[in-house]
Design a protein that fits this description.
single chain; alpha+beta; SH3 type barrels; 2 domains; five-stranded antiparallel β-sheet
Length: 182
């Protein structure tokens, strides 16, 4: 009977030292992944700091944030893969979040269309802030000076001074004419 207790203690001690070694290795890998995430973030900020231009600042900021989200997602997924019990829970959570994203995507389809059109407007530059434009929307043409271009909408100032907000999905699908003045 006493030898059984001693064998159990020796086995427990052996398992504990194996657990310590595994934990130390896992901690080193997690710290290495965290260091790579910090290095990636610093690298992205250094690259995009040189790219900041006044007329394309929103597009640059959008691209920088998209890359940062990608860096963080890869880093967090890598950390989750290092923790044994968390890898199966993370895959289940990922599948559930995919279904949730699909539902939210269908529910906010118009908003996403405006954001996608805003990205295309920022990249193609059919007009800039300060330009006078005519947007040929069917049934109601809109004319004014461009005050702001955001991801969701374009803001114009009409000749009478009123501010007109036009969704970017409408702007992207309409014929746009640049004018010399109002």
């Amino acid at each position: 009977m006493p030898t059984l207790v001693i064998e159990d203690l020796l086995t427990a001690r052996l398992n504990w030292s194996q657990a310590e070694a595994a934990f130390a290795g896992m901690a080193v890998r997690i710290l290495a992944i965290a260091a790579l995430m910090i290095l990636g973030r610093a690298l992205v900020y250094m690259v995009f700091k040189r790219m900041n231009k006044a007329d394309n600042m929103l597009a640059t900021r959008l691209l920088r944030q998209a890359i940062m989200v990608l860096v963080y997602c890869v880093g967090i997924a890598s950390i989750c893969a290092q923790i044994p019990g968390l890898s199966t829970a993370a895959s289940s959570l990922l599948a559930g979040s995919g279904i949730l994203a699909l539902v939210v995507g269908f529910a906010s389809q118009a908003s996403f269309a405006n954001v996608a059109a805003g990205v295309f407007l920022l990249l193609s530059h059919p007009f800039r802030v300060g330009d006078f434009i005519l947007i040929a929307v069917i049934g109601h043409p809109v004319k004014g000076e461009v005050l702001d271009i955001t991801l969701r909408h374009t803001i114009l100032r009409a000749q009478d001074g009123h501010r007109i907000t036009v969704p970017n999905a409408v702007v992207n699908s309409a014929v746009i004419e640049r004018l010399e003045s109002l």
